[in-house]
Amino acid sequence: xxxxxMSYVMTGALSITILSGVPxxxxxxxxxxxxxxxxxxxxxxxxTRNFADIIADQAMALGIYNEHDDLETAAKxxxxxxxxxxxxxxxxxxxxxxxxxxxxxVKKAHEAFVHNVADQFGIxxxxxxxxxxxxxxxxxxxxxxxxxxxxY
Length: 152
Hints:
Elements: H1 2-20, H2 26-30, H3 36-39, H4 51-62, H5 71-89, H6 99-120, H7 130-140, H8 142-148
Helix pairs in contact: 4-5, 5-6, 6-7, 7-8
């Protein structure tokens, strides 16, 4: 009877240590726990660029570079300048419009342009999304689809 009771006690103690994460052997208790940073090997990528450098290059290309702007402000300026260029390409008035309004107008104008091009090629547009229409245009004329794809 004592052996049976002792086996129940030992089984219970062992299951508690397993469930609680406490090391059950002295060898496990002595080994240090490694963090994720210590176990992962460091990966150094060659040819990658810092986001701040990319934004600075784009700002310089758009003619809006300012050294005193922080990264977030510079990124907003770059986004707005790109959006204004897209609006000008679609012959939209950009004066006095905020980014959200301008983005919505550019999107609608681009969708209308895609539908016009699809009509020129005789492609059915009802019930299709803009990307699906551009894919259908690509089957007929690859260069026209390249000009439409990735506009916004």
